[in-house]
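Annotated sample (chain length 666).
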Amino acid sequence: MHKQRIRVLPAVLTIAASSIVAFAVAAPAGAAVPGQVVVTEWMYNPVASSEFIEVTNIGGEPVPMTNYSFDDDSRVAGTVSLAALGTLAAGESALIVENPDAAAFRTEFSLDPSVKVLPGNSANLGRNDEINIFNGDTLADRLTYGDQTFAGTIRTQGKSGAPTTCLALGANNVGLWQLAATGDALGSKASLGGDIGSPGTTTLGECGPVNIAGGNGTGNPNTLPCNPEPASGTGPATTGAQTWPGAASVTVADQACAWKTTTGPEGRDMSGVVFDPTNPDVMYAAKNKNWVFRLVRQGDLWVADTSNDWGAGKQIRFPGGIGQPDSEGLTVGPDGALYVTTERDNTNNSVAFNSVLRFDPDSAGPSLIATQQWNLTADFPELNVPGKANLGFEGVTFLPDTYLVQNGFVDESTGATYYPSDYPGHGSGLFFAALENDGKLYAYALNADGTADRVAVVDTGMGHVMDVQFDADLERIWTLCDNTCSVSSTLLKVDATGTIVSDVVYARPADLPNVNIEGFAIAPDSTCVDGVKETIWADDGIGAPGHEGHALYSGTFPCDLTLGAQGAPATVDLGARGPGDVSVAKKGTLAVRGSGFEPGETVRIELHDKNKVDVLVEVHADEFGLAVADVTIPTGVQPGPQEIWLVAPSATATTGVTITTPAAHP
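Output written by the structure step:
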């Protein structure tokens, strides 16, 4: 039998619903976003202090303010130079104040002397006015405001105004700003004279980059630059679903409306997500309508990487640079390439086209062209009917041969243990593609020449499946169903018969919206902090009530979990591939293949002839735990039913064989 994988469950795992778990991870190369200076707070009519405007560098690199300037609704670049503010570090705020005495303003709000203040602003603000920040002659940000101009919006009289979320930055929508209140989440406090605000500091210092709307502004708090779509078809959780073992709370993990593309300007359709196995600060995400994004961690958010032309995502194409793959799921292969599933070509989206495409993520330029394609459409004739084209491949993951063989996974095409050598050219593992239509996984050996061999079909038990992930640390396979199953996740294992079956089903975390969640990713154990690691879910419709415009949600999962043993016992397969009786003549050669042993250990192959034992050969189990040899049957063996034994320190396996008398020579 295989060794049990023992995991210890912490006695108590308590995370406050409002907490944000910090993950200690290194910053990836190229992760820093360019510096960007925007307006983050203002007060036009103080009670006792001074009119002020706060600007913040929300990017990841320092910004010299040499060429920056401010003006009100006159919109004239260079009116008030901001050069005296020097250089703003990433996340640093600075203040433009009417008071000619910077020290007095700092004293009024008890600010540290290090807070940069530009005193003596003469371009004073009014009740209905505008704040314009320029970089040279280029508009860097604009906020058009006024409670009389935009009915129902704030009036900063004795209380400052600040953005409610990152979405408000650069949007020129004062309807997304709120008045300061003592002790609020922005860190607002009362000045010595009673004005309330948080000048010199902001909680939104890592929101960049953002798009600058310019224009004449709006006060509609419901205006979004993207088009969320409410979830539909919600059903009950998968039978037997247990409480999510991580925290019940989740947090929004992206900027609103961050994933708009030229073929998907509505900003929806974020689907499969996966951590880069070489760098947990990097994720890849597939977006329908032929796009892939490379994401990097920025504080508590995931943002588009700006290096190597990834900033706006990369449009993907079929081999030859043609078509529009309806990209649904993706994984990172052992070669570092991206493997993306498609269910259609969006240039002909009423017709099913289920395939797996390989892309080189290091390719330069704004697009990626597939270097290989495995067209599996013919395996699913049931999808070639009207209305079924959109029910094809949703997710994909790679399972290494080591995991499959060492757990005795059975090749359904042969009925025997899976042997990698039966599929020359397939690489080092199998790809499991998730089919939405029937909730099953289809395991393929994807060969280097573009051909594919189906090895097995796995029933997830969920009816529908939207994503699949192999968890190398937990040694289980995650499968995800969206709101059709109330966002249930099923963990699969290899059972004692070598079949992949359901191990445990988890309901979604209590705070995760029950919407069209089509993507799931789990960070590696190397990122564990305080016994937990990050999980990411992706909402295809960006339509969760209260979180409209957001696609990504972050939660936690315990790093130590007891799931018990898995895998089939050691087995022996004789002769040709597949089950069935095996006969061999004396002096004949018999192919013996055993599985389930410890890599490197000595395995003795014996023939048990009633009361006699012949040692036929000794071999060493390979890196998969396979013991393979061609043996010769001795001449002195009695004809009839006998047994082949494989004996090793870790296990013994036996099977029957019939010995026959060689045919007489004519």
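Annotation: The helical segments are 102-108, 401-406.
Annotation: The first strand starts at residue 37 and ends at 43.
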